Amino acid sequence: MLAKSRRRRWLSILTLAGLAAPSVHAATARLVDLLRTLAASGYDILYSSDLVTADLTVPETDQSTDPLIRAKRALAGYHLELKDDGQRRFIVTRSLAPAAPQAAAAAARANEAALEEITVFASRYVLKDEQMSAAGSYGHDDIEQVPGTEQDALRAIRTVPGLADNLSSRPYVRGAFLEDVLVRFDGIPMMDPFHFKNFQNLISAFDPATVDRIDIYTGGFPVRYGTRSGGVIDVTPRALASGYENSLGANLLGYDVSSVGHSDSWPVDWLATARHSTPNITLQPTGDVGEPSYFDTLGRLRWQVSPATALTFGWLMMDDQVTSSTDPSAEQGVAHDRDVYSWIIADWTPSSQLHSRTSVAMTGMERTLNGELSLGAAASGQLRDDREITTVELRTGATYLQTSALLWDVGAESTFESADLAFSRQESLDPQLAASLGRAAD
């Protein structure tokens, strides 16, 4: 609790010092410009120019700093609404005006007067094509307010129905294997974004300072998420419409520094964070038999090349090591893992009704296990297990809102993956000990 309050105090001081940026909206902003601002901030928003015309404005009395809330309020004034289709995409549609109370009451009385017979049937179940329910979502403020997260964003989603949890930071979808659950960041699949992979995945790679929203599907999910069958955890990176925030914090597990902002002189958004474990990490096992350590850095740079085109560059690097030994002079084991993700995304929005995204992601993972045993003349040995995995993935997709009732959504993906394994083991036993065990000395 002391570390968390210290982090918030640093954030408050640095925010007051650095957020003296101009307001993001003018006094008489156009609604079209506000929607374009949202699209530039990473929101996937589609609308018809017949519904959102150039003469629609944002009320001057609305002083909300959240552009999404301002857009929803402004649209409501013109009997329009911003609907989430359950796939992290918003579509502007006409709002259905509720029937007047007098008309509804008159219709109910008419139906009651016409009721002459009631027919009762047995239970009837119909399987039909219906729009799936929206994902469970956690916003940035929701994640920050969940106690006990220890600066780990994925620990804040444990209350979502359908998720089971334990000591691990990795959420378990009930009834699904781990490889059947997809974890994405910025639309890029993450193969294994957790520290201490051989020790229950105790910490995720996502600091709450880097997360704007987490969408969780624990049942059915849209086909655009690909080949998994168990569930989806989709992490949206944080972005600011103007200004910047810097933070420096410490907790029981480590130290962290982060920066997120938007340049007022260049069309650039940035996000960067770094974390390092404390010397006496709380995860250290009792009995002084293990020494865990971890480090990670995550970054994202978005460049608005033109009003219709944006390029995003991102990376995630994770490194952790666990040394385990009851007596270093006799036996010792070392597990070392390193993951490097990098990606490039091109967004193209030539009109309010068309949006396309193409991404290239590269992943390199290294897993190393080393063991040494030295029991004098009785026994000695060495063990080494090296694994390297390389993945290159290409994804492209486009969405076209032809009319308010017809939406086209197409996409394709291709993945190349290679893996190398090198394993060696050597043992030397005392001849008499080997004979008693019924095995060779070497």
Describe this structure in words.
The chain has 442 residues and is mainly beta. It is 14% helix and 45% strand. It is built from six helices and 21 strands. A nine-stranded antiparallel β-sheet has the order 13-14-15-16-17-18-19-20-21. Strands 4-11-12-7-8 form a five-stranded mixed β-sheet. The protein has a three-stranded mixed β-sheet with strand order 1-3-2, with helices on one face. A hairpin with a 4-residue loop joins strand 19 and strand 20. The model is unreliable at 1-27 (pLDDT under 50).
Draw up the topology in text.
Layout: H1 2-18, H2 31-40, E1 45-46, H3 67-76, E2 80-84, E3 90-94, H4 101-114, E4 136-139, H5 140-145, E5 163-164, E6 172-173, E7 181-185, E8 188-190, E9 194-195, E10 203-204, E11 211-217, E12 231-237, E13 243-250, E14 254-262, E15 268-277, E16 290-306, E17 309-327, E18 331-351, E19 354-374, E20 379-403, E21 406-429, H6 431-437
Parallel strand pairs: 1-3, 7-12
Antiparallel strand pairs: 2-3, 4-11, 5-6, 7-8, 9-10, 11-12, 13-14, 14-15, 15-16, 16-17, 17-18, 18-19, 19-20, 20-21
Helix pairs in contact: 2-3
CA-based gyration radius: 27 Å
User: How far do the termini sit from each other?
Assistant: 55 Å
Major sheet characteristics: 9 strands, antiparallel
Low-confidence stretches: 1-27
Query: What structural class do helix, strand and pairing data support?
Result: mainly beta
Output mean pLDDT: 81
Q: How much of the polypeptide forms β-strand, as a percent range? A: over 45%
